[in-house]
Amino acid sequence: MKSLALWRIECLRVAAAAVLATSVAGSAIAAEEKQAVPPGVAEAEVAPGITEAEVASRGLRPMREVIYSQWQKLCFKESQDVDAKMLCRTTISGRWDTGQVVLKVDLIESEGGPAGRVQIFVPNGLYLQAGIKVTIDEQTPLQVPYVVCLSNGCLAGIVAEPDLVSRLESGRSLRLELVNANMIGIYSSLPLEEFGNVHRGEPAQILEQSLHEQEPNDAGGEMR
Questions:
Q1: Which residues are bridge partners to 143 per DSSP?
Q2: How far apart are CA 182 and CA 76, in angstroms?
Q3: In the predicted model, what is the mean pLDDT of the chain?
């Protein structure tokens, strides 16, 4: 069995490839150049010194309308060996009416492995130091830090302990609060009603290639 550290590295590798495979909105190149962070650079290095209270004083507003897909469970085998473990992703994506993907939430778990990860994909052009505030129904919010940015999107992630997975399965909605490049809070809520059935059920598809083997799509954008 892989160690927890190796599993987390594997999750990050797969998730980073998923960012490349996810089309995100817009083409605001100036915003990308201002906010994008290369892999390995801490989010605190971007626009330091802005406090949570200062951001809160600027208000909170809903995002432009996001149309969410159904929850779906996809599993991948790292090899064709009969004993190969599966890596499963319970996923939902949100699009604008233009068809461009602007949000993506995944629960990534390894068969027989330790705790998985909840990972959130967003476009570039956000204030990274703030992270993403995640709230299930009216429960205590979780703060999810950004862990890596690529040319076409950023990834935030947190370990999915059993208690968190259980709360997702029994929840009704998941609210995501982000801070845009203008230091204004924005939010979107996505449905959880079907998450439990999909997560506990059989995968919609089992593939023999992993996410990092898929061809990436180039994209970029700014969340408003």
A1: 133
A2: 39
A3: 76
